[in-house]
Amino acid sequence: MTELNGCEARKVKVMGPYTFSIGDTSDLSDYVRGGIAMQVKQPKALNFKSLGKSLTDPEYLMTDFAKFDRPAQLHLGFQALHNYVQQNGTPPKPRSQDDADKLVAVAKELNAACPDSAKVAEMDENLMKQLAFSAQGDLSPMNAFIGGVTAQEVMKACSGKFHPIVQWLYFDALECLPEENADSDLTEESCKPQNSRYDSQIAVFGADFQKKLEAQNYFLVGAGAIGCELLKNFAMMGLSCGEGGMVTVTDMDIIEKSNLNRQFLFRSWDVGKFKSDTAAAAVKKMNPDMNITAHQNRVGPETENIYHDEFFEALDGVANALDNVDARMYQDRRCVYYRKPLLESGTLGTKGNVQVVLPYLTESYSSSQDPPEKSIPICTLKNFPNAIEHTLQWARDEFEGLFKQPAENANLYITDPKFMERTIKLPGVQPVEVLEAVKRALVDDRPAKFEECVKWARLHWQQQYHNQIKQLLYNFPADQLTTSGAPFWSGPKRCPHPLVFDINNKTHMDYVVSGANLLAQCYSLKGSEDRKYITDLLNKLTVPEFKPRSGVKIDVTDAEAQASASSCDDDQLETVRNSLPAPESFKGSQMSPLEFEKDDDTNFHMDFIVAASNLRAENYDITPADRHKSKLIAGKIIPAIATTTSLITGLVCLELYKIVSGAKKLETYKNGFVNLALPFFGFSEPIAAPSNKYYDKEFTLWDRFEVQGVQNGNEMTLKEFIDYFQNEHKLEITMLSQGVSMIYSFFMPKSKLDERLSMKMSEAVMKVSKKKIKSHVKALVLEICCNDEEGEDVEVPYVRYTLR
Questions:
Q1: Residue 374's pLDDT is what?
Q2: In this structure, are residues 475 and 552 in contact, taking their beta carbons and an 8 Å threshold?
Q3: Among 100, 266, 474, 724, which residue is least crowded by beta carbons within 10 Å?
């Protein structure tokens, strides 16, 4: 079917998750092997009704299927509101019953005159009144949501990329209003203007609610894209802007150039500053009344002396603006322990989600998890890449393996007397690999001048893009067959071809120039960007001819790669160990490991990554990537755009309104899921906290046993602790642990058991863990396994054992 090579795009039909049909192939030659299909998205023509026609014959994009009839009601309501403003010159006054009744009358009149396609069968008068009550309101979170959607639609219209909304989108968050007695609690008096910057918010929620907002104490973890938007919303809402209020924001990151397009509180002159400090200063300018403290701490066990019991107990809630799952799960555990509400959110390009975690009501963030991301198989990276992502990851590994890890290990060999002892204990083939890399770095490849760096870079080019490929094809020729008779080079395996160095090829020279300069940096030698000078050096260089060797083992599967990595040749290890000169001979010759930095265009890091990746892509006939795309993938930049971030943080702050109001019903809260590209909007109630039971007592992840360990200055012993549970809860403790330390188990040797039982609880914990209990720790978290009175295992909550 060679006719398909380079043909025009053909329409395909998807037959299943792994197959598609390309249509009639009767006029094509026979299929032999291989072939890689590339998806070509075709333009789609869309037609929209005019405003006049769509007003009477509307199409809606649903945002919440729990409010199935809401779009039609709001379509009528907003038309009635426009008519009301035309008639009266101003929207209805906040919480004015008379004005609300007038709006209802206008809506009834409009509905009666509507054609059947736009008429609502039964008008929701209460909804119309709520629209009237809040018509003069203007909420920052709602602006963030609508603004994000609108901005993305404008970009769709300009670019033709992604599917636009067809054709009306209505969104409401009436659940933010008080759950009960809203009409009696919110009056004309409480919602009237206060000559305040928050009057448009007071018009919706009242003056008392505004005071509550201003007195909130919140912890914001992260000051990146989501963190910046949240801080802006907090400032506009007046969160923590009054007496007793405080927002504490922490972020250990420094502002990088690549942050500026989506982290809007930062400017070019802020590059190199701490994100938290800069963001705090920016929102302080937006609202000088905001009480905000900026930290540069990582959240984790190492900062629990800062974010300790007193800190968390004073909080009203926590908002996460994190970019990794581990930190999210850690914060989630802290919020469950201290029983604090958690507002969790995340974005990925046009996709985003919001999750609200509420004490005693919902499951926690960690209760359900996405499957782990698939990593690229080792054999694919080493020998069988088929996508530019593979070659870029390979190039990143090359950078680390050439300019960072050998230098770090060489320095340890020189300075750390125990380095050799630790290295030999490493598993599998690692000792040989580490020591060979150290020997190359300190002896074999150590340059004395820049000219030797150029020679090294050229020979390394030859090894990677010519010699290794020739060896691979020697082992597995292009016409190689598998044991089943199928072509070896088929499916995802692309048959490579060796490259021939061309001094006039820019990518070839980019590799040599960047590689030589990076090696020079490792040895503190002066580099050069003079390509004529480097070209002259290359012209004088003789490159040895490569001859493939027989007997070279190349791993084809991950299992083979893992087997190779798990075995170590002791003779080879001893040889390389003995060939290393004594560390003392290298005193004063320490190297400079290079830390990959994607945003500095003068340091040769991205020059090397782009060249290394695209040369390997050329080996395997993979479409190369430009510098921008390479930086995105190799720098592991999580795609983030301002539109999605704005929308998501708007949804977060709508949930914050509900938390501050003290809403207790699960159905009041909403988890949100959005994809602006499709577009898709989905909202659901948070999942209730799952419950367990022992005897007749139900408990959830929010419950625990509270044990006061110290009374009248005396701390209970381990035996007293066990007896306490037997007497108070009719539970026999069979095992007791604290963290990874087993404090007690029924199968312990009697001598050890007798010793432990007489110990005070804190002494037992310190003895087993071999760690002192830090002064800021007021309580220990203990896990227990128990039997009930019938001797059956029962699941029980954890124990909070108070020490101080």
A1: 66
A2: yes
A3: 474
- pTM, to two decimals: 0.82
pLDDT digits (tens, 9 = 90+) for 122-174: 999 999 999 999 999 999 999 999 999 999 999 999 999 999 999 999 999 99
Q: Where are the beta strands (DSSP E) in 623-711?
A: 671-675, 680-684, 692-694, 697-699, 705-708, 710-711
Q: List the beta bridge partners of residue 180.
A: none
User: Comparing C-alpha atoms, which of 322, 216, 346 is closest to residue 673?
Assistant: 346
Q: What is the pLDDT of residue 372?
A: 66
Residues 6+ positions from 133 with CB-CB distance below 8 Å: 92, 94, 95, 96, 100, 186, 191, 204
Q: With 0-12 CB in 10 A as exposed, 13-18 as middle and 19+ as buried, what is 550?
A: exposed
Which range, of 199-213, 227-241, 354-368, 624-638, averages the lowest pLDDT? 624-638
> For the segment 37-78, what is each residue's pLDDT rounded down to a tens digit?
888 888 889 999 999 999 999 999 999 999 999 999 999 999
What are the beta bridge partners of residue 760?
717
Residue among 398, 395, 415, 402 at smallest CA distance from 445: 402
Locus of tokens 């072939």: 35
> Residue 380 has which token pair?
């694919």
In contact, 213 and 653? CB cutoff 8 Å: no
Domains and CATH numbers, the chain: 137-369+643-684 (3.40.50.720), 389-624 (1.10.10.2660), 696-802 (3.10.290.60)
**Cβ count within 10 A of residue 606:** 22
> How far is residue 265's CA from residue 272's CA, in Å, rounded to a whole number?
14
Instruction: Decide: helix, strand or coil at residue 447.
Output: coil
C-alpha span between 123 and 134 (Å, rounded): 18
Let me know: does 284 contact 290? Beta carbons within 8 Å. yes
Answer yes or no: are the C-beta atoms of 390 and 376 closer than 8 Å: yes
Q: What are 280-319's pLDDT values in tens digits?
A: 999 999 999 999 999 999 999 999 999 999 999 999 999 9
The whole-angstrom separation of Cα 456 and Cα 448 is: 12
Element (H, E) at 326: helix 325-338
- In whole angstroms, give the CA distance from residue 707 to residue 745: 19
Sign of the C-alpha dihedral computed for residues 695, 696, 700 and 705 taken in this order: negative
Active site residues: 379
Q: Give helix 506-522 / helix 605-619 axis angle, nearest 10°.
A: 130
According to DSSP, the residues that pair with 416 across neighbouring strands are none
Burial 107-121 (b: 16+ CB within 10 A, else e): beebbeebeeebeee
Distance CA(433)–CA(420), nearest Å, equals: 13
CA atoms within 13 A on the CB side of 761: 27
**Quick one: pLDDT at residue 516?**
98
Contact 133, 84 (CB under 8 A): no
Q: What is the pLDDT of residues 737-778, one digit of tens each?
A: 999 999 999 999 999 999 999 999 999 999 999 999 999 999
Q: What is the CA radius of gyration of the chain?
A: 33
Instruction: Report pLDDT digits (tens) over 595-612.
Output: 999 888 899 999 999 999
CA distance 598 to 605: 7
Output the DSSP codes for 204-266: HH-HHHHHHHHT-EEEEE--SHHHHHHHHHHHHHTTT-STT-EEEEE--PBP-GGGTTT-TT-
Burial label, 593 (beta-carbon count in 10 A; 0-12, 13-18, 19+): middle
Helix, strand, coil distribution of the chain in percent, nearest 5: 45, 15, 40
Q: Which residue has the tokens 């750390």?
A: 416
